[in-house]
Amino acid sequence: MLTEKIKRSYYPLALIAAALLSGCVEEVVDNNTTTTAAAGDDTDPPIITLLGANALTVEAGTVYTDSGASANDAKDGDISANITQSGVVDTSAPGSYILTYNVSDAAGNAATAVTRSVLVADTTPPAISLIGSSPQTVTLGASYSDQGATANDSFDGDISASIVATGSVNTGAVGSYTLTYNVADSAGNAATAITRTVNVVAVTLPADVTPPVITLTGANPQTVALGSSYSEPGASANDDRDGDISANIMIGGNVNTASIGSYTRTYNVSDAAGNAAAQVTRTVTVTEAIPPVITLSGDNPLTLEAGPAAYSDPGASANDNVDGDVSANIVMSGTVDRTTAGSYTLTYSVSDTAGNPASATRTVEVSAATAPVITLSGANPLTLEAGPAAYSDPGASANDNVDGDVSANIVMSGTVDRTTAGSYTLTYSVSDTAGNSASVTRTVDVSAATAPVISLSGANPID
């Protein structure tokens, strides 16, 4: 075939030989030539081309998306899909990162690796936002509390705590004041400073015609013991314009604790406009220093038997020569453990309005627990003959070492069927006021019914 082509060629033989040596031959037919490549070894590596910029700067905190690369091989064509990329870009950590791209063709020829330089940098300044309005208006003499501002950075997040505020507001002088807020992020990017304007203005108030109000501190009236000292509780005063003017209150009237009687204290004050408050008075009564008298209810000492029942105190009453019945003010201290035998002390305390104290004590003796004793009436066991008559129980009695006769509290359980022979059990139970319980049983034996025996008098039979 090749010989036939050579025969048909118009080229010199030397040129044909050269073509054969170079691995290709030209076929010329009708003045048209065709070049055919002969098979040979693939030694040419592919070429990698980056897509996108190199070097590349990425904002810290954003998402990095790589543009990738393409690869072309003289024999295999487009082998971009085979490219391997190594290296990572961490946008959470500013710095310089290198990405490397490699590929080989089907013959194993490795391309020259290509790299991309990616710089992660925080270049965005934070943004400051005012809390509250601007401008703000403050009344002359009032207090001003700045609401502050917030700052947010694309990389550092909330950096409000780093804000530096400069400037001041003098609410004692009419004028316009400027507060400036600045902040920079960790990369040194400074935010655009923002300002707040605070205007201090004078307010013309209408004439002050409202008087202040006086409020007494402590009780009114008060009672003081003869010969004691009187301590003035004082009073407070408030004005709608001047505020707290308690320090300006004038107190009049004396209390002579050396002499029994009733004394009057007066309280007066005026505001800055001269409006006088309504006078307030307090009555102080000096009485003889006699404490209240406490009277215990119930026994003292009080003896109880140990048991599960809770302790119930009989209480006490108290009477004062001035205040009268002050029983409701009695405070009892101490406890009684009814479950544990022992001696307990309870203290009753009370004071009258003059502060005269009184106290009394009660001793509570809790003795060891002793249950009541139940005594059955009638026989035990009790034997009866079966019959139609109903069962009538002989009963029982109970006595307690503390409560005495508690027979009325006995509860009997169980039944006896008098019509049916058999053995029956009755249980008798009782508890004392301390909760100590006792019980006994009675056995009732019902025997089978026996008919009467008749004995004849005289001969039987009779002739």
Which helices and strands appear, and what pairs or packs with what?
Blueprint: H1 2-8, H2 13-21, E1 24-29, E2 32-37, E3 47-50, E4 56-59, E5 69-73, E6 77-78, E7 84-86, E8 95-102, E9 114-121, E10 127-130, E11 136-139, E12 149-153, E13 157-158, E14 164-166, E15 175-182, E16 194-201, E17 213-216, E18 222-225, E19 235-239, E20 243-244, E21 250-252, E22 261-268, E23 280-287, E24 293-296, E25 302-305, E26 316-320, E27 324-325, E28 331-333, E29 342-351, E30 357-367, E31 373-376, E32 382-385, E33 396-400, E34 404-405, E35 411-413, E36 422-431, E37 437-447
Parallel strand pairs: 4-9, 11-16, 18-23, 25-30, 32-37
Antiparallel strand pairs: 1-2, 3-5, 5-6, 7-8, 8-9, 10-12, 12-13, 14-15, 15-16, 17-19, 19-20, 21-22, 22-23, 24-26, 26-27, 28-29, 29-30, 31-33, 33-34, 35-36, 36-37
Structural features, described:
The protein has 463 residues and is mainly beta. It folds into six domains: 36 residues, no CATH class; 75 residues, Immunoglobulin-like (Sandwich), CATH 2.60.40; 75 residues, Immunoglobulin-like; 75 residues, Sandwich (Immunoglobulin-like); 75 residues, Immunoglobulin-like; 75 residues, Immunoglobulins (Immunoglobulin-like, Sandwich), CATH 2.60.40.10. Helix content is 3%, strand content 41%. The chain contains two helices and 37 strands. The strands form eleven sheets. It has a four-stranded mixed sheet with strand order 4-9-8-7, with no helix packed on it. Strands 11-16-15-14 form a four-stranded mixed sheet, with no helix packed on it. The chain has a four-stranded mixed sheet with strand order 18-23-22-21, with no helix packed on it. The protein is flat and about 165 Å long. It starts with a helix and ends in a 16-residue tail after the last strand. Keywords: SH2 domain. GO terms for molecular function: phosphotyrosine residue binding. InterPro entries: Cry22Aa_Ig-like, Ig-like_fold, SH2_domain_adapters. This is Pesticidal crystal protein Cry22Aa Ig-like domain-containing protein. It holds the Pfam family Bact_surface_Ig-like.
